[in-house]
Automatic annotation (TrEMBL):
High-level lineage: Eukaryota, Viridiplantae, Streptophyta, Embryophyta, Tracheophyta
GO molecular function, one term: translation initiation factor activity
Keywords noted in UniProt: Cytoplasm, GTP-binding, Hydrolase, Initiation factor, Metal-binding, Nucleotide-binding, Protein biosynthesis
Superkingdom of origin: Eukaryota
A GO cellular component annotation in the UniProt record: mitochondrion
Tr-type G domain location: 8-224
Subcellular localization, as worded in the UniProt entry: Cytoplasm
Source organism (scientific name): Deinandra increscens subsp. villosa
Protein name, UniProt field: Eukaryotic translation initiation factor 5B
Similarity remark: Belongs to the TRAFAC class translation factor GTPase superfamily. Classic translation factor GTPase family. IF-2 subfamily.
Transmembrane residue ranges: none
Length: 455
């Protein structure tokens, strides 16, 4: 980069909304991928990140003839789950972003997690646009693949236009009830005061050009200061994952600064601060999802904003949602260690180690947090005595075996494997393991078990 010239980093955009409104599908449409169909139960249960380079933004918006207006290197998009159990991940995602997309299903209007997401965005004063998705479901919709919505609308029959106007008016009124002024993007003369609504279809691609362009233009126009690249590292751990062949890894979002292979880092750990050295810096290919296992690109160094997988020793107890620090020349490691631990507390405070309760094991800390949150809700209300991340091992069975009540000699395993040794030990010691890949199925299984015990 030329000295003295202000360079911008990529804006970070978080996509939020109620379950099944089409958040992942919209990203699939932009990426030309098929992540959504690979999800268990078709629901997103992890936070994701995808880098969209400027050239792809140009390509996707070229019909709108806005090329010259692009001066960010790309866009980093964070996908979040819409299912009610994942408020923590929505909160983590929205906490990272510069700008948001709030997705609303045109056939459903505002739903509970639409409002929750809206409030998370407003709480942090985050600018956002509304994607009014699934327009192709309007009766008689004529598909105009990947066309700008302005163009697609002109092709529609009078009936479609009437139904669209009717639903749009209702949804604008629903937003108004939430204290929010919204308007169709093309009529919105008071951007900033009034939020823009862009009609989209994630299936046939109409409106995607406007959606991307509005985001990038709005970010460039209103947040130059915030997007000015700075060398100061700002980095958050999204997820902690054990990956075959790589061991425990962390997925991070680098908001600002540069990370290098060999950098000494400090992150928050369940059992105290973790001080380690970056072994490798991996990213998926551009336009691919970080949370989906695939081919990784190795980097010697990498500049913000990016979603990155870091491999290093001792990461297995890292805590998602906390800050990552790089030990710079003259930095006091002891001080950094204290700082990272400030973030923690939250998760551990949810586990009552004194009483009786089930054991919960999950694939990532993010899903573990979500599961704990879910088990705590009044309708579910299952006490938890122990938690863990990764496969279920014999030692976990031993712990569960110490519970007195039969119903708590139980492991709720979410999206993890059970080692054969652990399974054998469980069978011989009256410990029951419930395995599920969808969070609420665990509850259903456990509830059925309790009911059976009571008989
Ligand atoms: P969660 O991540 O689980 O909250 O859901 P999501 O908001 O990511 O929605 P997802 O992408 O999983 O889509 C949910 C369902 O709606 C899938 O069956 C999609 O194929 C469908 N869908 C998404 N967008 C559209 C759209 O624009 N038109 C139509 N007809 N269907 C859509
Ligand atoms: Mg999704
Ligand atoms: Na879904």
């Amino acid at each position: 980069d030329k000295e003295g010239e202000k360079t911008l980093r990529s804006p970070i955009c978080c996509i939020m909304g109620h379950v099944d409104t089409g958040k992942t599908k919209l990203l699939d449409c932009i990426r030309r991928t098929n992540v959504q169909e690979g999800e268990a139960g078709g629901i997103t249960q992890q936070i994701g990140a995808t880098y969209i380079p400027a050239e792809n933004i140009r390509e996707r918006t070229k019909e709108l003839k806005a090329d010259a207006l692009l001066n960010v290197p790309g866009l980093l998009v964070i996908d979040t789950p819409g299912h009610e159990s994942f408020k923590n991940l929505r909160s983590r995602g929205s906490g990272l972003c510069d700008i948001g997309i709030l997705v609303v299903d045109i056939m459903h209007g505002l739903e509970p997690q639409t409002i929750e997401s809206l409030n998370l965005l407003r709480m942090r004063n985050t600018e956002f646009i509304v994607a009014l998705n699934k327009v192709d479901r309007l009766y008689g919709w004529k598909a105009c693949r990947n066309a700008p919505i302005g163009k697609a609308m002109k092709q529609q029959s009078k009936g479609v236009k009437l139904e669209f106007d009717h639903r749009l008016t209702q949804i604008i009124a629903q937003f108004k009830e939430q204290g929010l002024n919204t308007e169709l993007y093309s009529k919105n003369k008071e951007r900033g005061e009034t939020y823009s609504i862009v009609p989209t279809s994630a299936i046939s691609g109409e409106g995607i050009p406007e959606m991307i362009l509005l985001l990038v233009q709005w970010a460039q126009k209103t947040m130059i200061e915030k997007l000015t690249y700075s060398n100061e590292i700002q980095c958050t751990v999204l997820e902690v994952k054990v990956i075959e062949g790589l061991g425990a890894t962390i997925d991070v979002v680098l908001v600002n600064g540069v990370l290098h292979e060999g950098d000494e880092i400090v992150v928050c750990g369940f059992q105290g601060p973790i001080h380690t050295t970056i072994r490798s810096l991996l990213t998926p290919h551009p336009m691919k999802e970080l949370r989906v296992k695939g081919a990784y690109i190795h980097h010697k160094e990498i500049k913000a904003a990016q979603g990155i997988k870091i491999t290093a020793q001792n990461l297995e107890h890292a805590v998602a949602g906390t800050a990552l620090y790089v030990v710079g020349p003259g930095d006091d490691v002891k001080e950094l260690k204290e700082s990272v631990m400030d973030d923690m507390r939250n998760v551990m405070s949810r586990v009552d180690k004194s009483g009786e309760g089930v054991f919960v094991q999950a694939s990532t800390l993010g899903s573990l947090e979500a599961l704990l949150e879910f088990l705590k809700t009044p309708a579910v209300s299952i006490p938890v005595n122990g938690i863990g991340i990764g496969p279920v091992h014999k030692k976990d069975i031993l712990k569960a075996g110490t519970m007195k009540k039969k119903e708590y000699k139980t492991i709720l395993a979410f999206d993890v494997k059970v080692t054969p040794e652990a399974q054998e030990h469980a069978d011989n010691n009256g410990v029951t393991i419930f395995i599920a890949h969808i969070i609420y199925h665990l509850f259903d299984q456990f509830k059925a078990y309790i009911d059976k015990l009571k008989e």
